[in-house]
Design brief:
- The structure holds 2 protein chains of 2 kinds.
- Chain A has 16 helices and 6 strands.
- By secondary structure, chain A is mostly helical.
- Chain A folds into 3 domains: 108 residues, no CATH class; 162 residues, no CATH class; 47 residues.
- In chain A, strand 5 and strand 6 form a beta hairpin.
- Helix content of chain B is 71%, strand content 1%.
- Chain B is elongated.
- Chain B starts with a helix and ends in a 12-residue tail after the last helix.
- Classes of the chains: A mainly alpha, B mainly alpha.
- At the A-B interface, helix 12, helix 16, strand 5 and strand 6 of A face helix 3, helix 7, helix 9, helix 10 and helix 15 of B.
């Protein structure tokens, strides 16, 4: 019943567009298949049986800035065979082969599958459609939020263009390829702050973390004792503070938790610290720390990269902090008190703030003794 | 004036160490005889040069103080905006210096200067002590080392300010407040250097420390560095600046840190034992005091104010 309603709505929409000839903003990418004819409308979507509005809108001005702007829609949405198309069940998954028509480098279909396979072996692995605890884990698009982290150089330098156009007559082609490659050279990774913000999006979600900790406990494989406060305690750490200052060089989440031999391979294949191949596994920690701390040894591992002043996690530090608080406040009160006490005593003894011959003795004592002799 | 046991001891030791000739000894003893028992009468009547009359600090100590306070303040001004980088005032301050990375670099550079000052200070004290020992002029009571007498002085001084004593205690070259302050600063500086080095060289510290200590050391140092800095600022603002600038009798400031000299009135009031030594070591001070005492006859004034005859009767009453 609902599907029929959707078809009817789509038909009315297409008909209306055809009749009125409405035109909206010119798409900045090649929409050869006229998908935007429908998907450019902000209200394009449907209400699910759960009452949730699912938007099918693809804002052209936004899409034209993504890394996929030059990929025809049906290169990825290859299950669409007719228009208006039938309801989509799974949609595009990131491992599928795509933009087969525009891969002049190899002539072969391109795919993110190798990276996807790496990710599927990581601690974050999940499918596009996931349920239960897996649904909490990040899918590819949880982190790859185009275009925020993928700016590209849109205007190639003249000296590059001059050289390319000797053979490649189409300037658009040259620009596209320059952008494609330069983005990979120039924008190689996120800043430390961005990485921490990205990881913290899930690792500071208390309910989500508690769910996973409880499940692991039940399964007899309890998670690390700092799992629940990983993001918060990192922010408290020296690394976290330096990263927060916007300075590069301090360890971010990925510097320790991802294998740095190949950064891009490492970040997609983050492993549980129980895995012997993980850089945070107890056998590998010294080497991991030595990436930055040249003289790190077994004893250095005692330094907590996720420190906490919470009594639950570190009662000694909690008490030390409390003592400093008491001492600090106590000293302020005591010193102000002492100063007032002395001021009161000296004033009563006839000592003031007035200056006479560069000195401040000027009054008779109030202690009923005439201590000043008239000069 | 009849000297207390402590004062008598200090005076005799000073004269012994200086090999004071009998003539000068006699002069000092005569002057002490002419002094009123009430020291307040004395120090409220002397004329003092506001920039100082009597020697107190060598040029080395003055340079060290200048270096210490300038580095301390600048370290605080560059450390606080780093620690409280989220505060509304921190960002413009850091931007003014060229960004937080520049603030941190300045902070570390100043820390190196402060460490140099500490080494310079310890070297000065060590050299000064060795020279004094070699010349037979070392007196532990003239140093900043805490003594039991300091506790008694503190008690007596508190009672004076509370109004239950007529005079302040006879204190030495460094009184109890200065000793507390000195060791608080020494402790604070050491903690700051230790914790700062823990930030810069965590791996080296972990390899030096016994197993198990590293776990607490790094975090306690991280806790100590800002807290100790704030504590030091509080002590400086509410106590040191009060004592040397704002306290009645000290306003607008003591010039000692620049001139190395202390005013006569201050020396008699708070460092009377050192003033007695000044009488031994400074002939000019003996001359000044003799003139003052002869001009005003403070002892007679004292007796009159207590309802006694101006001169001591033959029977000594």
């Amino acid at each position: 019943m609902q599907n029929r309603l959707i078809y009817w709505l789509l038909f009315v929409l297409v008909l209306t567009l055809a009749l009125t000839g409405l035109s909206t903003a010119q798409a900045a990418f090649e929409d050869d298949e006229a998908c935007l004819m429908c998907h450019k409308y902000p209200r394009m979507g449907r209400v699910t049986q759960d009452g949730v509005f699912r938007s099918y809108n693809v804002p052209p001005e936004m899409f034209s800035n993504t890394v996929h702007r030059n990929v025809p829609c049906r290169d990825c949405h290859n299950y669409i065979k007719e228009l208006p198309h039938r309801p989509v069940e799974t949609g595009v998954t990131c491992e599928q082969e795509c933009h087969t028509k525009k891969n002049p480098a190899t002539g072969k279909p391109f795919s993110h599958k190798p990276v996807y396979d790496l990710y599927q072996n990581s601690v974050h692995a999940r499918g596009k459609i996931a349920e239960g605890l897996d649904a909490d884990k990040p899918y590819c698009i949880s982190c790859h939020t185009n275009p925020l982290y993928n700016p590209h150089q849109t205007e190639p330098p003249k000296k590059v263009i001059d050289r390319c156009e000797l053979c490649h007559e189409k300037l658009d082609f040259v620009t596209q390829w320059y952008s494609h490659t330069s983005r990979r050279v120039l924008e190689v990774k996120r800043s430390g702050e961005e990485i921490v913000a990205l990881c913290s999006r899930c690792h500071s979600n208390e309910k989500m973390l508690e769910r996973h900790a409880a499940a692991a406990e039940e399964a007899g494989e309890p998670l690390g004792k700092k799992f629940l406060i990983a993001a918060k305690s990192y922010e408290e750490s020296f690394h976290g503070k330096v990263t927060k200052y916007g300075l590069e060089g301090a360890a971010t989440c990925l510097v320790c938790h991802a294998d740095q031999e190949n950064y891009y391979r490492g970040v997609h294949g983050i492993l549980s610290s129980r895995d012997p191949a993980s850089p945070t596994h107890s056998n590998n920690r010294v080497e991991t720390c030595r990436q930055c701390h040249k003289y790190a040894d077994e004893k250095f591992l005692a330094v907590d990269p996720h420190p906490s002043f919470d009594a639950k996690y570190n009662p000694v530090l909690h008490k030390a902090e409390a003592i400093y608080g008491v001492v600090g406040n106590g000293v302020v009160v005591a010193l102000i008190g002492l100063s007032l006490f002395e001021t009161f005593g000296r004033r009563r003894d006839g000592v003031g703030w007035r200056i006479r011959w560069g000195s401040t003795w000027w009054r008779r004592s109030k202690r009923k003794r005439k201590r000043i002799i008239p000069r | 004036m009849k000297l207390s046991k402590e004062a008598e001891k200090a005076l005799q030791k000073c004269m012994r160490q200086n090999r004071t000739p009998d003539k000068d000894r006699k002069e000092v003893e005569d002057l002490i005889e002419l002094m009123p028992q009430d020291r307040v009468l004395l120090y409220k009547n002397v004329i003092s040069n506001p920039i100082g009359d009597l020697p107190r600090y060598s040029i080395h100590i003055r340079i060290q103080h200048l270096l210490t306070f300038s580095t301390f303040l600048l370290l605080a001004f560059t450390g606080l905006p780093v620690h409280f980088s989220d505060a509304f005032w921190a960002e413009p301050f850091n931007s003014m210096l060229g960004g937080i990375e520049v603030t941190r670099t300045i902070h570390r550079t100043l820390a190196a200067v402060m460490i140099f000052t500490m080494i310079y200070h310890v070297a000065t004290l060590a050299a000064g002590t060795i020279i004094r020992l070699a010349r037979g002029r070392f007196d532990i009571r003239r140093t900043v080392i805490p003594m039991y007498k300091d506790l008694q002085d503190m008690k007596e001084d508190v009672m004076y300010f509370a109004g239950t004593r007529k005079q302040r205690p006879e204190m030495d070259k460094f009184m109890y407040k200065q000793k507390i302050h000195y060791f608080a600063a020494a402790f604070g500086n050491s903690v700051m250097v230790l914790s700062g080095s823990a930030f810069l060289f965590p791996d080296i510290w972990a390899s030096i420390l016994p197993s198990g200590w590293a776990y607490y050391f790094q975090d306690i140092m991280r806790l100590a560095h800002p807290h100790e800095a704030l504590l030091a600022l509080v002590v400086i603002a509410f106590w040191h600046w009060y004592n040397v600038h704002l306290a009645p009798g000290r306003f607008p400031m003591q010039w000692t840190y620049l001139t190395g000299k202390i005013t006569r009135e201050h020396q008699i009031e708070e460092h009377f034992l050192e003033y007695l030594r000044n009488l031994v070591e400074q002939p000019a001070e003996r001359a000044y005091l003799r003139t003052l005492l002869q001009k005003y006859d403070l002892r007679a004034q004292e007796r009159l104010s207590e309802g006694l005859p101006a001169s001591v009767p033959a029977d000594g009453q």
